[in-house]
Specification:
This protein is mainly alpha-helical. Strands 2-1-5 form a three-stranded antiparallel sheet. It has a two-stranded antiparallel ribbon with strand order 3-4. Helix 3 runs antiparallel to helix 9. The relative contact order is 0.15.
Length: about 375
């Protein structure tokens, strides 16, 4: 809306020249972040009170007995983050920009799926939305985005030393730390893109198990990708850093800045002991947005670096499940129960059962998350 005001009313010869700042992505991104934070801090206490009054709270997880004291904590913190991001985007973003439109659809789609899951967990059953139905919804939303990208005439400058513009669906993968090196997957890129979005969405959800853990790690990853989108959308910066120039992608920064502010506001209330949880509404949406942004700016592989802790948490679950099923098939259930790779998965529960304090796990994971984000950004200059 601010961009619309600028386009509609700005007159270079007029008396009010300060309005020209609305044309700058950097200014609108800062406003978006502040707005997202302000709305999150303002709405969060109201939502917490409403959740407590309506019993919209986390259930006791029998498989995590040492978290029994967390039962009854409100779980709609993520809904506030999603709403704050949406409002900040609508007010500060360029709504004519294709990337902003795409991310708005992903934001609302995954937010709706997560909210349904949280609702069912609170009022119907602890399992929430059946896993296969939740995955189906995620795959549908991811497929819609990929199809939208396929049909959109997005313009790229793939080679940093060339001003040639390529338009249409690009199936190349940029390789981190190497300049002008691409892996063309052809038709295989479509399922990979869908898996990146769905995988990132579920990875953040798996990580959301300790006070401040998923929220903090999300801030670092989103911050890294906010910088990446701004640089990718800027011709001179992308050329200097030798990254793919995605024309118009700078507007994504406004969306990510709004989410960054919303998450900072959420973390204010999620700091130990948490007054509110992210819930699936927030976790699924944040991860999905990260995956979608990675697809849109052609930095899919870099997401493994920027979100390395999410990857580690997901791998711990996959390894634990695979080894358990293998041992159960070969030697029986009793052997499988006593011969696990981790004490418990996801990974943060393994360290809890190893005797680490919750705050120590969170802070150490945060440190690793910050280092990962810095390495991802450093890879741009090392190309």
């Amino acid at each position: 809306m601010l961009k619309w005001i600028f386009d509609a009313f700005y007159d270079p010869a007029g008396p009010i020249t300060a309005i020209r700042v609305f044309q700058y992505i950097t200014f609108r991104s800062m406003i978006s972040a502040v707005l997202g934070f302000g709305l999150s801090v303002y709405w969060m206490p109201k939502v917490i009170r409403w959740c407590r009054a309506s019993n919209f709270r986390a259930a006791t997880k029998e498989d995590v007995p040492f978290h029994s004291q967390k039962a009854g904590t409100p779980i709609l913190g993520g809904a506030v983050v999603v709403l704050a991001t949406l409002v900040a985007t609508l007010l500060c973003g360029n709504l004519h920009n294709t990337f902003v439109q795409m991310l708005t659809v992903v934001l609302m789609g995954l937010g709706a799926v997560g909210f349904l899951d949280d609702y069912l967990k609170s009022f119907r059953n602890e399992a929430g939305l059946f896993g296969r139905y939740k995955l189906l919804c995620q795959f549908v939303i991811a497929a819609v985005l990929v199809a939208w990208v396929y049909r959109s005439n997005i313009e790229y400058r793939l080679l940093w030393n060339s001003e040639a513009i390529q338009s249409g669906f690009q199936t190349q993968l940029a390789v981190p730390f190497f300049k002008n090196i691409f892996v063309d997957l052809g038709v295989l890129y479509v399922p990979l893109a869908i898996i990146v979005i769905v995988g990132a969405s579920n990875a953040v959800n798996l990580t959301d198990g300790l006070d401040g853990l998923a929220g903090g790690l999300s801030i670092f990853s989103i911050g890294a990708y906010a910088a990446l989108t701004y640089l990718s959308g800027h011709f001179f910066f992308s050329r200097y850093l030798q990254v793919i120039n995605v024309i118009g992608a700078g507007e994504i920064t406004v969306v990510l800045a709004g989410m960054l502010g919303g998450l900072l506001g959420f973390l204010w209330f999620n700091a130990p002991p948490a007054e509110v949880f992210l819930g699936d509404t927030g976790a699924l949406t944040i991860g999905g947005i990260l995956g979608a942004v990675a697809i849109l700016i052609k930095q899919e592989l870099l997401l493994v670096l920027a979100g390395s802790m999410f990857v580690a948490e997901t791998l711990s679950v996959l390894i634990q499940t695979a080894v358990y099923r293998w041992n159960k098939w070969r030697r029986g259930k009793e052997y499988a129960n006593t011969h696990r790779v981790f004490r418990m998965s996801p990974l943060h529960h393994h360290f809890e059962l190893s005797g680490w304090a919750e705050s120590k796990i969170v802070i150490r994971f945060w440190i690793l998350g910050i280092v990962s984000a810095l390495v991802a950004l450093a890879s741009l200059k090392l190309r």
